[in-house]
Amino acid sequence: MLSNLVEMPLFGVGLTLVVYALAQLLYQRTRSVWFNPVLVSIVAIIGILKTGGISYEKYSLGGDLILFLLGPSVVALAVPLYQRRSEILKRKKPILVGVFAGAVSSIISASGLAWVLGGSRDVVYSLAPKSVTTPIAISIVEKIGGVAPLTAALVVLTGCLGAVCGPEFCRLIGIRSSVATGLAVGTAAHGIGTARMLEVDRLAGAVSGLAIGLNGLVTTFILPLMFLFFD
Amino acid sequence: MVRGLAFLLLFQALGELISHGLGLPIPGNVLGMGLLLAALGCRLVKVDWIEEAADLLLANLALFFVPAGVGVMVYFELIAREWLPIAVATIVSTFVVMLVTGKVADFLEPQEEDQRAE
Fold first, then answer.
1. Whether B15 contacts chain A with CB within 8 A
2. Of the candidates A74, A155, A99, the residue with the CA atom closest to the CA atom of residue B57
3. ipTM
4. Does one domain contain both B45 and B99?
5. What confidence tens digit (pLDDT) does each residue in B24-42 have?
6. Does residue B7 share a domain with residue B58?
7. Which residues contact A206 (CB under 8 A, 6 or more apart)?
8. Hey, are the CB atoms on B62 and A196 less than 8 Å from each other?
9. What is the 8-class DSSP label of residue B60?
């Protein structure tokens, strides 16, 4: 009977919602950034699936339904951007220069470090677009010739790290404005970072959402050029 | 609420059509965000029509990433094989990007305007 349930989309949807609701409760009780609900949910669900011997394919029957909502949500990021347009338009220069600098430093530091530490060509290439939102990162890595699934996994890990530590790290290094903080977290940690910034402050969330698109655009164009010289 | 969701999906569909039609590397949902922003700017779409649906989705944005994250389990072996360069590069680079982007943006921000606004 239980095995029938696992074959239904209900399983993946139900498991995700229950675990996420509990993770949110844990986060609200502890207020510790390490109990980031996304990170805790991912770890807990992987643990449950592994323990129960349930394949990812079965989980994704329902998981894909939740993942579907990511599409319209990205489109919805236009709303906070529109509502905060006057504050954002006033800061065209810091936003554009900041994202460009971040995109270049991301490619150089991620691929460079992996290369120095003896990573294989696959790892060096797959790491390059790790700060870009998943669908753009995949299309870039397919173009330059990395391992798309590895990139997808690294993008999610990067996003979790940025969401967990981003706002605190920015405060620690003395970044004052919410625009700069939102931009930093959005450029480094795409949508997962943006989700955290939306909880912290609406303007920061809007700018963070903008940074996802801008970083995706910049990286799409400069990464293939940079790797032209690397090869 | 339903109308708002319909508009969001419509703009995502437009984005997908353009992305696939022109063979662009930018995904449909990101193009859809740009198109919706333009439509809001030109007053083709009123923000009241979509605000409720957008707020509901964005309030739960983090949840929608969970299934993507669970997908990492499929690639455990791939990551475990070269875990050291992967871990170091991912962690250090994420902080480098936040440092560079944040500091550059912070440095270039119009300070006077900030104070006037407060």
1. yes
2. A74
3. 0.89
4. no
5. 877 888 899 999 999 999 9
6. yes
7. A77, A80, A81, A83, A84, A88, A182
8. yes
9. T
